[in-house]
């Protein structure tokens, strides 16, 4: 497997505040890497730095190509999908229109929408509804489907289970597993340890903007180690 | 009744269409950037002034004047978007863009005052403002043209907005800039395109209003307030809202002018704005974004 995404010494600052310092990671094609961390650990800043939504220092390489000063839209066009925290669907557009816009990144937009709906068929029956009228869980599914419809080779997922009912958390985990099977490299940030455990993914632990440990989702003592890191 | 039509309805509709054209440009720009372009009044004057300079001062053909004026207007619009609007789009504060667009309008007004030394000039190629009698109804081609142009422009932009992928992209940026950027839609490109569309509206507006007005750098400013009220009444994020906003502003203003006197026009308009804002803070057709949680 070749590295789809390589991040080296990523740093993000907001004015005088350092949100992320010297974070390095690598995600292969068809691999899931989960970054766990408490609120304020820098998880969202890390994803936003990688996708270009905030300015950052360090290097982001996508399939061997350094993204450098490309802005967020250009990085998305290069194949870097990003499902943002808070979903960010277009509330006054229908589900169909949201998917159509996402699919325009795909070389074959119709196939992109088909792939997304195959992954999340429940969206088909709400195709004509305004996205702002969907429940939080449905919006989350739409946000994931919209990103997938653009055929990204790397998908950044920002706390997709946040605020979801347990049944929907399991559905989200299944969907992420299915995305991995498509060969997409997934960089997932989460607060829930059980998501990393369910996916059996590689784990990085982020604390106060720095990587403080690595683990694997199948490690027996993962939960204890994470809690120790959270409380440190 | 004929008096009411001649004194209120027809001039009110023409005035409302003028305000509506200003409002339309405001809405186009506001939806994608969140910025109200206070330099729009000067942009409106740029087109007729450009034609005058090329054709009247330099003695070149009017068609060449139109081409040059369009190119100059496009360049100025893109420059304003780059230096006075886009840097402040996501600042989260209104004061920077209020000052930058006002500043840009002052600079433009000073530059536009140079060719004719700030003197108002007649535009000789405008549509006839001579009233024709149609069974007692007095109406001019200039009044008909501005009302028809206004309605057609709103219809065309609404179709563009609803039926084209580019329109859909602009709506996406208007609703969520980060969400749009995350799927490859550049908010900067959307802002540039909106500025060019607003510039196109300015060009048409400028050529229409100089049928009845003298060209001067300050003329656009006269209509700016009416346009702002029309946009706010219709809803700052609503394209079709400008139809209601424009005609309400025009008819109310003309009613006040006819029955109460010219001094009461602005008072009447401000009263309408106040009533609408107190009862519907997002305007008659504007919407607060709906988001389930």
TrEMBL record, chain A:
Lineage: Bacteria, Bacillati, Actinomycetota, Actinomycetes, Streptosporangiales
Designated name of the protein: ABC transporter ATP-binding protein
Family: Belongs to the ABC transporter superfamily.
GO MF term list: ATP binding
Cited InterPro entries: AAA+_ATPase, ABC_transporter-like_ATP-bd, ABC_transporter-like_CS, BCAA_Transport_ATP-bd_LivF
Top-level taxon of origin: Bacteria
Pfam families per UniProt: ABC_tran
Limits of the ABC transporter domain: 5-231
Residue stretches spanning the membrane: none
Keywords: Amino-acid transport, ATP-binding, Nucleotide-binding, Transport
From TrEMBL, chain B:
Top-rank taxon, per record: Bacteria
Keywords associated with the record: Amino-acid transport, Cell membrane, Membrane, Transmembrane, Transmembrane helix, Transport
CDD domains named among the record's database cross-references: TM_PBP1_LivH_like
Pfam families, sorted: BPD_transp_2
Subcellular location, record wording: Cell membrane
Transmembrane region(s): 6-28, 60-78, 98-118, 138-160, 193-215, 227-252, 264-280
InterPro entries, A to Z: ABC_transp_permease, BCAA_transport_permease
Main location: membrane
Membrane-related topology note: Multi-pass membrane protein
Ranges in coiled-coil conformation: none
Flavoprotein as UniProt keyword: no
Family affiliation: Belongs to the binding-protein-dependent transport system permease family. LivHM subfamily.
Name of the protein described by the UniProt record: Branched-chain amino acid ABC transporter permease
Natural source organism: Nonomuraea harbinensis
């Amino acid at each position: 497997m070749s590295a789809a995404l390589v991040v080296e010494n990523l740093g993000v600052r907001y004015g005088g505040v350092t949100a992320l310092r010297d974070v390095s990671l690598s995600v292969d094609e068809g691999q899931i890497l989960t970054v766990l961390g408490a609120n304020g650990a820098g998880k969202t800043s890390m994803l936003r730095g990688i996708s270009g939504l905030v300015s950052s220092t360090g290097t982001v390489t996508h399939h061997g190509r350094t993204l450098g000063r490309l802005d967020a839209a250009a990085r998305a066009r290069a194949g870097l999908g990003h499902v943002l925290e808070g979903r960010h669907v277009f509330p006054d557009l229908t589900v169909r229109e949201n998917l159509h816009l996402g699919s325009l990144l795909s070389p074959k937009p119709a196939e992109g929408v088909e792939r997304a709906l195959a992954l999340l068929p429940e969206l088909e029956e709400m195709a004509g509804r305004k996205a702002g009228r969907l429940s939080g869980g449905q919006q989350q599914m739409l946000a994931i489907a919209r990103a997938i419809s653009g055929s990204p080779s790397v998908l950044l997922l920002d706390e997709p289970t946040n605020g979801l009912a347990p049944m929907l958390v399991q559905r989200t985990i299944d969907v992420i597993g299915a995305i991995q099977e498509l060969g997409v490299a997934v960089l997932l940030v989460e607060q829930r340890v059980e998501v990393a455990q369910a996916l059996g993914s590689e784990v990085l632990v982020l604390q106060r903007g720095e990587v403080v440990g690595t683990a694997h989702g199948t490690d027996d003592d993962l939960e204890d180690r994470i809690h120790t890191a959270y409380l440190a | 009744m004929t008096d009411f039509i001649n004194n209120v309805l027809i001039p009110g509709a023409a005035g409302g269409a003028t305000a509506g054209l200003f409002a339309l440009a405001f809405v186009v720009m506001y939806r994608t950037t969140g910025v109200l372009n206070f330099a729009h009044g000067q942009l409106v004057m740029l087109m007729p002034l450009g034609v005058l300079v090329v054709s009247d001062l330099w003695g070149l053909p009017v068609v060449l004047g139109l081409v040059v004026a369009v190119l100059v207007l496009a360049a100025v619009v893109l420059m304003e978007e780059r230096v006075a609007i886009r840097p402040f789009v996501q600042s989260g504060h209104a004061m920077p863009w209020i000052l930058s667009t006002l500043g840009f309008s002052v600079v433009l007004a000073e530059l536009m005052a140079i060719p004719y030394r700030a003197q108002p000039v007649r535009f000789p190629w405008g549509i006839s403002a001579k009233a024709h009698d149609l069974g007692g109804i007095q109406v001019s081609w200039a009044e008909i043209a501005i009302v028809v142009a206004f309605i057609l422009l709103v219809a065309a932009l609404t179709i563009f907005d609803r039926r084209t992928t580019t329109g859909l992209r602009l709506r996406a940026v208007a609703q969520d800039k980060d969400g749009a950027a995350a799927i490859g839609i550049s908010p900067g490109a959307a802002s540039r395109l909106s500025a060019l569309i607003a510039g196109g509206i300015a060009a048409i507006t400028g050529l229409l209003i100089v049928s009845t007005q003298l060209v001067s750098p300050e003329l656009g400013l006269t209509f700016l307030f009416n346009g702002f009220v029309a946009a706010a009444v219709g809803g700052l994020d609503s394209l079709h809202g400008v139809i209601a906003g424009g005609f309400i502003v025009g008819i109310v203003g003309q009613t006040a002018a006819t029955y109460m006197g010219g001094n009461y026009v602005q008072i009447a308009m401000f009263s309408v704005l106040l009533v609408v804002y107190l009862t519907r803070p997002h305007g008659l057709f504007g919407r607060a974004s709906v988001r389930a949680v």
